[in-house]
Amino acid sequence: MPKLSADFLQKWSIRSRLAITHAIVTILILLVVTLFMYWALLNSLQKENYQFLSNEIKIIQGLLQKSTAENPLDKLKQEIIWEPTILQHTHYRYYCRLLNSSGNVIMETPGINTLTRANNLLSLANTRLLQSNQNYTWKATRYHYYLMATKIKNDTGEDYILQVILFSKQQVGLLRDYQRALVIVLILGGLLAALTSAFIARESIAPLQKILETTRLISTKKLHQRIDPTAWPKELTLLAISFNEMLDRIQRGYEQLTQFSEDLAHELRTPINNLMLTTEIALSQPRSITYYQNILTSNLEEYNNLSRMINNMLFLARSDNDQIKLQYTQFDARQILFNICEFLEIIAQEKNMQLSIEGQAIISADLSLFKQVINNIIINAIYYSHPDSLIKIIIQQNQYQTIINVQDSGIGIAPAHLAKIFDRFYRTDAARAQNTGGTGLGLAIAKSIMNLHHGSIEVISKLYQGTTVRLSFPNSNSID
């Protein structure tokens, strides 16, 4: 049954749930308030009625306890016979009866004998009062009657029983009218609560409607659409901010994908066009064997460039999807750097450049990827440094990480390019002028490798003064 109720509620919209919940709560509050008001009125009337009976008993008791010389008979008649008779048609319609210790009637209000039900109750009260040795007051509320009876002693020690009946039928009518009024108030209040609840629910859901409208406007050509979080309620501000951040990520990803597609098409078009052109020229007329060998050698170089580009792209794709498993080993960073510099020394000697290594550290990393990222950074430093210059490789290690700085005194990078140099296929104008033949993926691969190691790569550069590439590898004891 609870599951059925949950499934049933799930079919309702949030707006309907809010409206119904608010209406039910409001109606319940109205119900509690009306019941309390009715109870308060009823309790007030009861207290007032009993107070009236109690006051009447005190007056008659006072007259009985006066000296007989004062002859209170006329006053007793006034209180027991005349005044009740006069008030028969008013709000306080009451009757009095005075009995002696034997139960005989001494004086009573005319018409009291017609109150059969009240008299039946009073006869039971008389029995209790006559059998009691103590003075006490009996009271009850039955059949629209408020009843009080008490045992009284006068100043000579004689016992009397005084009975007072208040007929409250008019008050019952008043209470019924009040009940009808409260029911009307409850019904009208319920209708008003339903209307206001529907309005409040609609206004509460309105911001979500704006999200729907915004999402309908979003397309590949309109990724700039955003929601203003300042116009939202506090509870939905974080949702609006998160939604905008999601759109920012989607827009950046789409723009990067679009740029990547354009760059990829451009990078593939050039070598493919070269291959097609040289092949068409070779086939345009008969050639010598030596010519064909040279054409095949040139084509092979282009194929190697294409293969290297495809492998780099495949590496980046696998890195983005966490498909590369690192093989951590501990090794001497200085020794590995020395081996790499020794291998690249031939390229550096072409520009009469020197490579130097400072510092020493034991690093825990994937050795193959470590060699790849260091190789890419040093080759870039060689390509973009001036001849007869020095490239410094500085190793620093602290409690948390190992830092490797590769410093050159080359052409530097303009500030406008620093934020984009890790984008795939991105080249600065200076880099293009150098015509190094690179694919533009070296720094993108270096960043992916550092991300795989939970490290970081940072480029600090000043135009025409040089560049420092800082690689930070976390120590094994600081990796989560």
Can you describe what's shown?
This protein has 480 residues and is α+β, with helices and mostly antiparallel strands. It has 3 domains: 11-175, Beta-Lactamase; 231-320, Helix Hairpins (Orthogonal Bundle), CATH 1.10.287; 328-478, Histidine kinase-like ATPase, C-terminal domain (Heat Shock Protein 90), CATH 3.30.565.10. It is built from 12 helices and 12 strands. It has helices at residues 2-10, 14-64, 73-86, 116-131, 169-217, 234-284, 289-320, 333-349, 367-383, 415-418, 429-434, 442-452, and strands at residues 93-100, 105-108, 137-142, 145-153, 159-167, 328-332, 354-358, 362-366, 390-397, 401-408, 456-462, 466-474. A 5-stranded antiparallel sheet has the order 2-1-5-4-3, with helices on both faces. A hairpin with a 3-residue loop joins β9 and β10. It starts with a helix and ends in a 6-residue tail after the last strand.
